[in-house]
Amino acid sequence: MKDNSASGNCPSMQSAVPTSMDLSSESDSSPESDFPGNSPSADEPRVATATTSLAETTSTTSLTAATVPTAATVLTATAENASGATPPTGSASSPRILPWIAALLTMVFWASSFVVIRDAADHYTPGPMSLLRMSAAVVVLSAWMLFRRPKFPTSTRAWVITLIWGVAWFAGYTVLLNAAERSIDAGTAAMIVNIAPLIVAIFAGLFLGEGLPWKLVVGIAVSLAGIVLITIASFSGVVTIGGLLLSLAAAILYAASVLLQKHFLSRDDSVTVTWAGIMAGTIACLVFTPDLITEVADAPMNITLQVIYLGVVPTAIAFNLWGYAIRFLPAGVLSSSSLLVPALVVVLAWLVLGEVPPLLAALGGTLCLLGAAFTIVPQMLRSSSRSSSSKRTGHS
User: Fold this and answer.
1) pLDDT tens across 215-274, in order?
2) d(Cα 37, Cα 269) in Å, to the nearest integer?
């Protein structure tokens, strides 16, 4: 902990306890001084006067120096707790393995959604499917919010960005992707959408200061080559210009949403941000309500339950895990982990649906895994080494 006393390692009795003037000075200079309730109260007890006995002063001074953190430290901790802020990417105090676990679970859940959509697409059109999916997610997250203390954005600007992000990702992206897969081969649509991680890596490197490590670029290229092989193996011959444009628009919305979240929203409370974003997306999809009522009445119950599953697991749970992971990991590296999804889809379709993948698809899935590993593993090892060094430093 930083010592603000003037005497260094052995603070004197007079300098160990900051006066009211010292606290005011530190509060004014702290970047978190704008947070209400963080400034020292005017009614705080003052330092013992000259008439206080030497024994009382010595006892009070020793207790204060040993147990009370500096004003700047208290202000920073309070502000972080109030805003849901986390240490920036790569800081020594951030967890090292949990964000990677969250990212991996997110990819598995997102991959499962492709398997489910394959059945549901025959009974639900793009808009109503998105509305039912988002409605289920809103119900789950709203129930969750009742059992926790939400930390809402405190500025109009933050609310506007959250709502734009929510409409772009949870309404625009999902509807466009669902529509694209009705007018283009699903594998081709997935191949086009998966250029989004490359877009994210380039823009995050140029504008968010993450750089463009050669291993990241090579890993993305290898994974994209694998996706091409999977696409060729599963190609059914259904291609339209409209489907290509819809897939490209979905990729752009995906990349823009990730960059927007990383730059503006990653330091906010991820649960609250995800809930607000999904709520905005649900409201935007309400125009599909009449069609949804008709399709729910006609669709088999098991198909409707599958769409509800899309809202609960790949949306409500997965996007919260994603929001947590993006608070600690570079946007380029995290988005490149989504290149695992095509390979996971091949595996899940094999295990769940009994669809044995063609040799070319299996080879493509292997390339996806190798490319993603080439991108992600060095970052994981670097995080692990930093964590170990920080622990050694803390115990030394």
Assistant:
1) 888 888 888 888 888 878 877 666 778 888 888 899 899 999 999 999 899 888 889 999
2) 20
Q: Sign of dihedral through CA atoms 145, 149, 154, 157? A: negative
Query: Tell me, what's the pLDDT at 339?
Result: 81
Using an 8 Å Cβ cutoff, are 180 and 243 in contact?
Answer: yes
Angle between helices 289-298 and 126-146 (to 10 degrees): 100
- Tokens at 390, concatenated: 């920080």
Tokens of 295: 């399709």
Exposure of 296 by Cβ count < 10 A (0-12 exposed, 13-18 middle, 19+ buried)? middle
Length of the chain: 396
d(CA 240, CA 242): 5
Q: In angstroms, rounded to a whole number, what is the distance separating the alpha carbons of residues 111 and 98?
A: 20
Q: Please, how many CA atoms are within 13 Å of residue 244, restricted to the half-sphere of its CB?
A: 4
What was the pLDDT predicted at 186? Answer: 65
Enter the pTM of the model: 0.68
According to DSSP, residue 36 is labeled T
Give the pLDDT mean for 99-105: 91
Write 354-359 long-range contacts (CB < 8 A, 24+). Answer: 357/233, 358/233, 358/234, 359/233
Residue in the structure block whose two tokens are 């972080």: 80
Distances (CA, A) of 364 to 11, 107, 271, 331, 368: 65, 17, 35, 24, 6
The first and second tokens of residue 228, run together, are: 């091409």
Task: Judge contact between 239 and 189, C-beta under 8 A.
Answer: no
> Where do we find the tokens 């704008």?
34
CA dist list (Å): 286 to 114, 291, 309: 23, 10, 19
Q: In this predicted structure, what is the pLDDT of residue 388?
A: 52
